[in-house]
Queue: 2 jobs
Job 1
Amino acid sequence: MSTFLATFLVVHVISGVIGIFLFGGVALNALKQKPSLKTLKWFSFLGFLSLMISWTISGGYYYVTYYGKAVKPIIQAGATPWIHSVIMESKEHIFLFLPFAAFLAMFIFWFYGESLAEKPKLKSAVAVTSLLITIIGIAVILAGISISGAASIK
Amino acid sequence: MDWYTFLIIIHLIGTVLGVGGATFAEIFYFKAKKDGVIEPLEVDYLRTAYFVLRIGLFILIISGFGFLLFYRLIGAGEVLLNQKLWAKLGIVVILVFNAFLIQAKKIPMWLGASVSLTSWYGALVLGAWRTLDASFTSIIIVYIIAVFIMAGILEIVRRLLKIPKY
C-alpha cells in the first residue's frame, strides 16, 4: 500500500471513530433533562463533518481505488471469505445511514434547538437518532476491524 | 521516538485518566452521599471526575485505533482478529452503553457503578497482561463474574461507611 493510500486509511478510521464518539456525546447530552444546546450544536456539526470526511474523501477513495482490486481478493482467497461477503457487504450499505442521520440530527439542533425544551417528542426523537448513529457506528467500526484483520491472514 | 512508543504513551495517559476518573467518580459519589445530600460543590467534583473519565476514554479509543492501524500498516493485521483484543473491544462497548444507560436512568446505580469500575479495570488488566492466552468467551465470563464481585465490594464499602443506598 502506498503512503498516500495508507494516509487515506488512517484518516478514514480516525475521522470515523471521532464522528461516532462525538455523536455518542450528543446522545448522552440529549438524554439529559437540561441539555447544553451549544454542545449539541457543535458536537453534531463536528460529528457530521468527521463522518463526511470518513465516507467521501478518505473511505470512498480508498474503497474505489484500492479495496476492490487489492484487499477483496485476499479476503476471498483466505480462511474467512464470509468477512467480505457478509461483513463488508453489510458495512458498505449500512454505513450510509450515518451521514444522513447525522445531517438530520445536526439540522434539528441548529434550526430547532431553541424550541427543543417545548417539544419533548422532537427532543427524544433526536436523542434516539443520535443513539442509533452511535450504535450503528460502533457496529461499522467493529466490522472494519474484522475486515482489516481478515485482509492480513495469509 | 517511534510510532509504537508514542502510541504506548498516549494509550497509558488515556488509561490513567479513565481508570483514575472512574475511581474518583465513585469515591466522590460515596463521600457526597454520606450525609444524604449532594451539595453543589460535590456535584462540581463529580462533574470534573466524569469529564476527566470521558477525556480518558476518548484518548484511549483514538490511541487504541492508532495501534490497530499500526499493526495493519506494518503487515501484522492478523492481531486484529485476536480473541483477547475482541474481548477488550467488547468490554469497551459495554462501558460506552453503560454510560448511556446510567444517563437515561435505565440501569440500577449499583450495577452501573460496578459495570463502569469493572470495565475500566478489566480493560487495564487486559492491556497490561501481555502473556494472557485466553478465549473471548472465558474472558467475558470472568468479566461478568467480576462485575458482581465488584458490586459486592461496593455494597460492603457502602455499609461499612454507613452511606445511604444508591
Note: The helical segments of chain B are 3-33, 40-73, 83-103, 109-128, 136-160.
Job 2
Amino acid sequence: MRKLLALLFCCFVSPAFAQLTIEITQGVDNPTRIAVVPMGWGGSSPLPEDVSEIVSADLQRSGQFDPVPRTSMLSFPTKPEDVFYRDWRAMGAEYLLVSSAEQRGGRYFVRYDVFDVLAQRKVISAGKVDGSPEQLRDIAHHISDKVYEKITGIRGAFSTQVLYVEAFQHEQKADNFRLMLADADGARSRLLLESDQPLLSPTWSPDGREIAYVSFETTRPAIFMQNLATGQREQLTNFTGLNGAPAFSPDGDKLAMVLSKDGNPEIYTLDLRTRQFTRVTNHYAIDTEPSWTADGEGVVFTSNRGGKPQIYKVTLASGRVERLTFDGEYNARGRVSKDGKTLVMVHQRQGVFHIAAQDLTTGTLRILTETNLDESPTIAPNGAMLLYATRFGGKGILAAVSLDAGTKYRLPSKQGDVREPAWSPFFN
Amino acid sequence: MNWRSLYTLPVIISVGLHLILVLAVTIGWESSTIDPKPRVFKPNVVQAKLVELKAKDTAEPAQKKTNVIDLTKKRELEQQKAAAAKKAKEEAARKARVQREKKAKAEAEAERKRKLEEQRQAEAEAKRRAEKAAREKAERERQERIAQERLDEAMRKEEQQHQAELAEAQSQSYVNMIAARIEQNWSRPPSARRGMQVELLIQLVPTGQVVNVTITKSSGNAAFDRSAEQAVRRIDRFTELKNMQPELFEQNFRQLRLVFNPKDLRL
Amino acid sequence: MITKAMKQGLSFAFVMAFLVGCSSTDTKTDEDAAGAGANGGVTTGTADGGALGSSNGMDDGMEELDKVIYFDFDQAVLLPAARSLLLAHSERLRNSDASARLEGHADERGSREYNMALGERRANAVRDFLVLQGVSRSNLEVISYGEERPLALGSGESSWSKNRRVEIDY
C-alpha cells in the first residue's frame, strides 16, 4: 500500500523553479495622493493668482486626487534637482508637481515637472506654458489638464467653461434673468445677457464658439444664437407656441429644437446653412428636450406618449422611434455621453428627482445624486463628471457628480438661483 | 537488531581458534595448514562444502596407513625372535618396548594429530559456520538494507512529495497574501476598463523587499500600467515573506510574474 | 386561435384604455360643444389692445373672477373644480369680445423644457374649453412659462400646487 502511494506520489513531484504568476483582479481606487508644491516665483510682489492652489483645487475637485496640504510639506522645491523622493514618499505622496514662474515682457512663463515619487522618475519633464497676467488661471487649468491626463489617462476638462442661468425672483419684485459664462470651476463668471423675461436652455455649439438659448424677451419664447467672441446674436425662431430646447448636432450643422407650431410639441431640426426646418417627430403627446446621439444620426427626446415622460430615440434617416427608459415613472431630459455608452437624465424615484445614468448597452440605471429637485444634467467633454442643478439652502445651485457617482461637489454659491448649466466642449 | 551483539560471539570464537592454531604451529606442527583466507571471503556455500569433504579425505587414509604398517612390522619381528628368543627376548622386549613406546608415541602422535585435526576441523567448521552465518547475516542484512533503502526511498519520496505539497500549500498562501496586499494597494485610474491587462515582473529579496519592477507586457494605457507598478512600489516590501523557508523563496518567490486584470470595474 | 383571440382582446383593451384616458376632456368637450352650439357661436373679430379694454370692463361693478386654474402634477387635464370658473370666464369673454392671454405654468419638479410643454398643454386645455364655450379662438393667446415664473416661491406641495396653473389674463 505504501509502495503504491509512494509510486503515485512520484508522479506529482513539482518541477523546480516554476515561474509563479499571481493574478490581480481587484483594486481599491483611492484618490491619487499628489503634492502640488507652491510655484517658485522670484518676483518682488506675489503672483496675482496662487497658480499651485488653483491646480491643487482642480485636481481635488475631480475626485481623482487627494492633494497633500501645504502645511504637511517638508520642503518647497521649485526645481527638479531639489526634489528628494524620500521626503515625499514619507508623507504618502505618489506624485509630485514642482513648478516655477518668471515674468518677461509682461507675460508669465511657467515651467513644471511631475514626478512619480514611488518609481522615482519624471512623468512630465519640463512642461511649459505661458500667458498674460489675466491668464494665470488659464495657466493653472492648463497644468491641471496635463497632470490629470498623464496620471488618469483621461483628458482633463479644467480649461473648459460653463454656461448657466442665474435668476433673481421675488414674489413682490420684478424678475431678473442672467445668462452667465464661467470657468468650469465657477470662477471668473461673466454676464452674457440680462433680461426681465425668462432665459433658459443655454447650449454650446460643438466648436465652443456659438451658443444658443431660449429667451422670452419678445414676450414669447424664441431661440437665439449668439457668437461668444463678438457678442453678435440672431433670433432663429419666432413660431407660435413653444420655441425651445435647442441642441447643436455633433457636426455643428444643425440645431434640433422643440416647436409646437403645428399644435403639439414636436422635435424639429434646423439646417443652420439652408435655414430649412425638418419635422422629426409626429405624435399628439409631448415630444421635447432633443439631444443628439454621439454619432449624430439620431436624437433622443422626452415624450409622454406612453402616459408618463420617458426618453425615446428617433433615428433621423428612418424616423424609427424606440423607447430607451423603462425604469420609473418619470425620466426626462436625456443627454448621451460622447462615447455613446451612457444616457444621463432626470429620474424620479419615490417622489424625489435625481440625476441618473443608464448604461445604454446593458440598460442598467444608476442614480448618481442624493439631492432632491435635481435637473439639467450636462456631461463634461471628457465624460468624467456631470454638472446639474439642484437646490441647497433654499437656493438653486450647481453641483457636480462623477459618472461613477464617486465624487460630488458644489460649485461656489451665487447670489441668485443658479440653474441650467451647460458644460462647454473642449476649446481646441 | 544490534550489529555488535550479532558479531560478538563469532568474533570471540574466531579469535580463540586462531590463538589455538598459532600455538600449535609454534610447537612444531607443520602439517598442511589450510589457508583460511581464500575461504573467508568466498561467498559460495557449495564450494565451501566441497573443501570440507576434501579435507576429510586427505586426513583419514594417512592415519589408517600408518596403523597397517605398524601391525605387519610387529608380526615379522615376533617370527624372527622365536629362533633366537633369549637374546632376542631382551632385544625384543626392548624393541617391543621401543615399539610400544614408538607405537604409543605414534599413537599419541596420531591422537594428538587427530585431536589437532579434529580441533582444526572443528575450528574450520566453526569458522565456516561463522562465516556462513556472517555471510547469511550479511546477505540478510543486505536484503534488509535494500528493503530499508527502498522503504527509505519511498518514504523520502513521499516526504518529498509531502514537502512539495506543503511547499505548494505554503506558496499558495503566500501568493494569496501577496495578491491581497497588491489589491489593497492598487488604485486604478478612471481610464481603467475591464479587459485591460498589464504584466509585471518583480524581483524580491528574502526580506520581501521589492528590488525591481518591470512592465513586461503593457496594457496600452500608460496610466493603467503605472497604477499597477505603483501598487507594487507602494508596498515596497512584502513583510509577509520574511519568515518563508529559504528554499521556498528561492524556488518560487525570488521572481514573480504579476498579471493585473481588473474584474471588479463597472465599465 | 387562442393568440388571435388574445390579440383581439388586447387591442380592444387598448382602445378602451385610450378612450377612458381621453374621456375626462372629451366628455366636457361634448357637453360644451352642445352649449356652444346653443349660443350660436362667436364671430371672429380682431381687437388690438382689447386686453386693456377688458381689464377696464372688469371694474364695471362686476364681481372679480378668480383668474387661476389649478392642475395636478404632470397633468394637463382640467379638474372638475375648474369648470364653473371657466364657464364664468367664457361668458365674460364671449360678451366682451376681449382678447385673453392664457399663461400655462408648472411646478419646479421635473425638467424645465418638459414643464414648458406641460404648461402649454394646460393652457391649451383651458383654451379648448373656452373655445367650446363659444369664445373665439383668435381672441385667445396661449403662452407657457413652464416653471420659470412660479407664483409661490419655495419647495413643497403648498407652493407646488399654487404653481401648477393656468392664468387667464384679460
Note: Residues 71-154 of chain B form one domain.
